[in-house]
């Protein structure tokens, strides 16, 4: 509550020193370490961010759902604060899957509640964070699983869009990821009534199809998922499922014909 930004910044430093010396006393008062990240003064925010970066990266503070507060700094109007936040997450990504392990809590913190950010900011933040897990297939598979489960536990329309957006950020290099989407379909099929959610899942199908282009088994799995996704969408909005399924089959046949034509053209060029 001090009026002077200098005093508030110094308090942030003092709290950091207390945490180092008396780590066991912080406990339930850890929120006081993160509070100044939302100070009206840029100097206070920068100081707090640097203090927390030092504490977290050196293992002096155990993160328990507060990384969302750090993630909000990625969208700070001051470029120095935003750059410090990017540096923090880049360093954190090298520490025992720390970003991956805290991703569900970060999504919740940014998507729902009084502290949620707007959807455009959410999109930019998640796009940045997902870069740290996209290259690891096993982590990608597990994230797909966890996000699909989240649909079962929310009725919030905004959060459903955010979850679907996060799913669309993943690369879908393995068949396991598509299989988990297919297995999780009962949990989110009702959400497909919303156009934005369905669009994100359609984007997922497009990505998966590109990855599976040279793998017959994977291609069949993607086509099965696309058909069931369309049928679920039809049920959700009250369309004729049989008609939708027939249209999907026709498009699949068209793609198969296109692949065959491409192969013939390649052979002709060789001749």
From TrEMBL:
Q: Which domain of life is it from?
A: Eukaryota
Name of the protein in question: Condensin complex non-SMC subunit Cnd1
Q: Which organism is it from?
A: Linderina macrospora
Question: What gene makes this protein?
Answer: cnd1_2
